[in-house]
Write a structure and sequence with these properties.
Structural class: alpha+beta
Bound molecules: glycine, manganese (II) ion
Radius of gyration: 20 Å
Number of helices: 11
Strand content: 5-15%
Number of strands: 10
Helix content: 25-40%
Low-confidence stretches: none
Strand order of the largest sheet: 2-3-5
CATH architecture of the largest domain: Alpha-Beta Complex
CATH topology of the largest domain: Creatine Amidinohydrolase
Distance between the termini: 56 Å
């Protein structure tokens, strides 16, 4: 571009045609049958990576051993990883690529990993499983809330629905589940409107998926996920939502709610007295070593409703525990 246009490299971004960007995004947001097939292949390989991790994990292993195992599955299928593997007992640290911890009984492992096919399409899947053979009662309670948020959000991923509203629905399910456990309190509509739930769910519900894991993001996320009349919020949590606009047939996107207990954030907000009408800080002391849970699938929006791409990947507590007990 620098040579063609005779522009300094530093000026290229500034000179880009917004009209052209919007046209490219319009075309590339709707996936063709061939593209869907390729993404589905990526998701199925990604599922094999996750189920291999669930079967192989043992107390005493280093995270790196499991990360290497699953990355090898992506390579062995004539592809690569679509992004650096996230595999950590510290799931509360988002986008954490450190693999130096040892798996210890009682902890959770959060794995966010996806394959890229030889045709360069991406899968982006997250699962969370216990290092022990079974979840603890406390882990099960949080897991069930995240699972409900994921399943209900997938069901809402329909033509014409704004993904912003799906995100806010997931936030409400999370806040409601946490209220049932006594961790949140008060008027939940108000709590979600003000962003109090973002202490536990500080990221967006999902993003477009395709040739890039955050598809087309180099074109400018505002053009991919937002419109001239729908702009990105500045509120903590909501500002991390990459996709907000109304869904169309042929969109492929991720749905990935999570609940995290981030000790530093809890301590900061508590010291500031932030959202003390919505958060029971006293109750959170029991959760400071919990880590985090995220569950993520890849969805095709169709006129007949949402379709989860790829072969089903163990997701319910029973399915995950069955693989943890695999001999
Ligand atoms: N898989 C990482 C992300 O969606 O940000
Ligand atoms: Mn994702």
């Amino acid at each position: 571009m620098h040579r063609w246009l005779g522009l300094p490299i530093d000026d290229l971004q500034e000179a880009a045609s917004v009209e052209l960007i919007k046209a490219v995004v319009n075309i590339a947001s709707v996936k063709s049958a061939e593209e869907i097939k390729e993404i589905e292949k990526a998701v199925t390989i990604s599922g094999a990576m996750h189920e291999a991790a669930m079967k192989a994990a043992r107390p005493g292993m280093k995270e790196a051993e499991l990360a290497g195992l699953i990355e090898g599955i992506a390579l062995a299928n004539d592809g690569d990883v679509a992004y650096p593997v996230i595999l950590s007992v510290d799931g509360q640290i988002l986008h954490n690529h450190y693999h130096g911890n040892t798996l210890e009984e009682g902890r959770l492992v959060l794995v966010d990993a996806g394959a890229e096919t030889s045709g360069h399409y991406a899968g982006d899947i997250t699962r969370t499983f216990p290092v022990s053979k079974t979840f603890t009662a406390q882990q099960k309670e949080i897991y069930e809330i995240v699972l409900k948020a994921e399943i209900d959000s997938i069901a809402q991923t329909t033509v014409g629905t704004r993904f912003l509203d799906v995100h806010l629905g997931a936030a409400k399910i999370i806040a409601s589940g946490l209220k049932d456990l006594g961790l949140m309190k008060g008027d939940l509509d108000e709590a979600v409107a003000q962003g109090a739930h973002a202490l536990f769910f500080p990221h967006g519900l999902g993003h477009m998926l395709g040739l890039d894991v955050h598809d087309m993001e180099d074109l400018g996320e505002q053009y991919v996920g937002y419109t001239d009349s729908l702009s990105r919020s500045k509120q903590f949590g909501l500002r991390s939502l990459r996709l907000a606009r109304a869904l169309e047939p042929g969109f492929v996107l991720t749905v990935e709610p999570g609940i995290y207990f981030i000790p530093q954030l809890i301590q900061l907000w508590e010291s500031e007295g932030k959202f003390k009408d919505f958060i029971n800080y006293d109750k959170l002391t029991d959760y400071l070593g919990f880590g985090g849970i995220r569950i993520e699938d890849n969805i095709l929006v169709t006129p007949d409703g949402p379709r989860i791409l790829g072969h089903p990947i163990a997701k319910t507590i029973d399915e995950v525990e069955a693989l943890r007990n695999f001999k």
